Amino acid sequence: MKTWLFLFFGIFFILLAYASWKSYRRNRSAEEFMLAGKSIGPILGFLTFSAALFSAFTFMGMPDFFRNHGIGAWTFLAFSDGVMVFFILWFGYLLRKKAKEHNFQGVAGLMVSSYGTRWAGVAMFASAFIFLIPYVAIQIRGISIFLEAAFPGMLPSWIWALIMVVMMLIYAEIGGLKAIVYSDAIQGLILLLVIWLIGGTCIAAFGNVPDLFAAVENVNDKLLSTPGPNGLFSWQFLLGSMIAVVMIPVTQPQLTTRLVVIKDLASMKKMAYAVGIFAILVIAPTIFIGMYGAVKYPGLPASEFLSQALLFDQAAPVAALAIVGLFAACLSTTNAQIFALGNELRSLLKGEEKRAMRITRISLFFFAAVVMVFSTLMSDELALLARVSFTGTAMMAPIVLMAVISKVKPYWEVIPISFLAFTIYLLSLAGVVPDHVGALRLDLALYLFLVVSVLLLSAIKKIK
Amino acid sequence: MKKKTIWRICTLVVPILIILAYTPLMIPNGVYKPMLLGLPYTLWTSFIITVVLVALTYIGARVHPGNDEEEGES
């Protein structure tokens, strides 16, 4: 396998070097560096959006989610993504209009200019920082536990994490967003190829798809229906997940920015349905990997199951490609998110551009260091941690939605209302606030609170 | 049919599909039969709905009212 690893890593690094060389320009403007000159075409656009969305979390978290909780994981992510891509048609159109009016530099900056108060931008940046850092750490954690299992005793997981973070920083510093977009495209294609190769092997191990599910039925038939063996996939959990996923392009700045940097509206719309097709194609094989794991490795911890299913049960070239694919997925997703945080910070800074860029570049190192520390503290429940991140940022969605929808200056009261929901959700994660309101899950109760509050606020303002 | 009408139909169908997806019709408790091509009930039904949603996105992208407005951006 070592020969295959050297070969595939060699090809991958050559492609990365080429992409950063192609993206590097001396004396480029901040907009060229941070927003790729707002000139991304539809194919690169869909690949970069998909790669930022589907990452180590999809590759590792989803098979483990299917293995432990059953087929409801499809509704949890793939169905939710289907709703999200339709929502992008409406939201992306309005966002791009607003972005053009306000000379978009970042979501936080757009909020400052829409609401006329810095608090709007600070609130968005704070929510992104608090929930994106753990989300990025999930990616690093995912690949480092995999590499540690793949190469036992070679390096501790934190050294693997450090290697990735350093590579990511060098790459981002040289090429800026354009290089990240190219690396996303490379990653998206590797991910799709390798996940189908592995999914195919998992089906082949049982002969065909019906036989695979028949084997699952014999082992644990609760995996074949909702709410699954642990009762996780209740309608409330699935509905709450769908809302959180649909709000990803609204509140996760790495994706919001991608809707704006695509060169025109037609390209953005093509991107939307292409992402939907990609979602189906990339999540489908994770069902087969998960079901394979449910039969073959039902009781193993996540890291052991993943190293068996993705590595040791595969032919050498496929296993090598899986390692390179995961490494690429992790690199591009963390790059996209750290870079987005840097961009958000820059959009809040005032004054000379050179100074703002210097602070932004330093902030990338700071964010990477925080992520590094967090990655050593995360648990192995990748899919659930990702959901927490999506839900946390979704609480701030009314701020962005009101700014994007309103033809006039949006109501400032939306900021404290959203921040209150955000804080309550944070407190529930800390165990200070209960996670249910009566029979209703707290996340659903908070979404309901946000909708009712915004509607009431609008009605009161209209009467006045 | 006018583009605007098709867009409106799309925006009506999507919420109906969303509501259906979270009812016992799509996620019945502990039920996995009838199976289709070996796939359990909730999986094949939600797979079909996901494909329909993506198809509606494709149609929506072609008929979205914003298509008539030129962005005129770089």
Overview of the structural elements:
The complex is a heterodimer of chains A (464) and B (74). Chain A has 464 residues and is mostly helical. Chain A has two domains: 2-391, Sodium/glucose cotransporter; 395-464, no CATH class. Chain A has 20 helices and two strands. Chain A has helices spanning 2-23, 30-35, 42-53, 56-69, 72-101, 107-115, 118-150, 157-204, 209-220, 235-246, 248-251, 253-261, 265-296, 302-312, 316-348, 353-375, 382-394, 397-405, 414-429, 442-463, and strands spanning 436-437, 440-441. Chain A has a two-stranded antiparallel ribbon. Chain A starts with a helix and ends with a helix. The model of chain A has no long low-confidence stretch (mean pLDDT 88). By secondary structure, chain B is mainly alpha-helical. Chain B has a domain at 1-29. Chain B contains two helices and no strands. Chain B has helices spanning 3-21, 41-63. The longest helix of chain B is centred in the last third of the chain and has 23 residues, at 41-63. Chain B is elongated, with a radius of gyration of 17 Å. The two termini of chain B are 32 Å apart. The model of chain B has no long low-confidence stretch (mean pLDDT 90). Chains A and B meet through α5, α9, α10 and α13 of A and α1 and α2 of B.
Helix content of chain A: over 70%
Largest interface comes to: A-B, 51 and 40 residues
Query: Which structural class is indicated by helix and strand composition of chain B?
Result: mainly alpha
What CATH architecture label of the largest domain in chain A applies? Answer: Up-down Bundle
**Number of helices, where a helix is a run of at least 4 consecutive DSSP H or I residues of chain B:** 2
Helical stretch count of chain A? 20
Strands in their spatial order, largest beta sheet of chain A:
1-2
pLDDT under 50 segments of chain A (min length 5)?
none
CATH class of the largest domain in chain A: Mainly Alpha
Q: What is the H level of CATH, i.e. the homologous superfamily of the largest domain in chain A?
A: Sodium/glucose cotransporter
What is the fold named in CATH at topology level of the largest domain in chain A? Sodium/glucose cotransporter
Order of helices and strands of chain A: HHHHHHHHHHHHHHHHHHHEEH
Can you give the mean pLDDT of chain B?
A: 90
The CA-CA distance between the termini of chain B, in Å, is 32 Å
**Class of secondary structure makeup of chain A:** mainly alpha
Query: Which geometry of chain B do the CA atoms define?
Result: elongated
Mean pLDDT of chain A: 88
The beta-strand count of chain B equals 0
Query: Which stretches of chain B are low in confidence, meaning pLDDT under 50 for 5 or more residues running?
Result: none
Oligomer: heterodimer
Written as H for each helix and E for each strand, in order along the chain, the element string of chain B is HH
